[in-house]
Amino acid sequence: MSIALLSAVSAPVHAQTTVRISEMDCSQLVTHVASSDVSYRPGVDVNGNAVAPADLNAQPQISVPDVISIPVTIDLATNLGINTPFLARPTVGEVQITRDGRVSFNGQPIGDSTQHELAKRCQQVGVAN
């Protein structure tokens, strides 16, 4: 079985490209999402029976942001072999990672936007990993 995906990535308005990709290849592009029956449920064992929760001193859940930013710095003093009385680590950029797995450096995408688009389309047609 193959899946036809219509691609409009980086294409002029009047041109369209049809890409055919096998279901097997499509499944390798899709991000794995565990089914609800294997997800952790506090206070319930594997058979669905009530048990004491494992987190007896529960802390508030941390909400993960939509974008995680990581500053990229260079240790100039160490790289240049210089002893300095101050910290010489300028920030040269920032890596950002979004919830959907996109990675960028200083706002420019890292990776293949076409691959990301294919993965998104595979998820839309219901191919699972």
Share of helical residues: 10-25%
Shape field: flat
Number of strands: 6
N-to-C SSE series? EEHEHEEEH
Measure the end-to-end span.
Answer: 16 Å
C-alpha-based Rg, rounded: 23 Å
How big a fraction of the residues is strand? 25-35%
Oligomer category:
single chain
- How many structural units, i.e. domains? 1
Mean pLDDT: 76
User: Helix tally?
Assistant: 3
Structural class: alpha+beta
Strand line-up of the largest beta sheet: 3-4-5-6
- Are there runs of 5+ residues with pLDDT below 50, and where? 4-11
- Tell me about the largest β-sheet: 4 strands, antiparallel
What does this structure look like?
This protein has 129 residues and is an alpha+beta fold. The chain has one domain. The protein has helices spanning 23-29, 76-80, 113-124, and strands spanning 2-7, 17-22, 67-73, 91-98, 103-105, 108-110. The strands form two sheets. The protein has a four-stranded antiparallel β-sheet, with no helix packed on it. Strands 1-2 form a two-stranded antiparallel ribbon. The model is unreliable at 4-11 (pLDDT under 50).
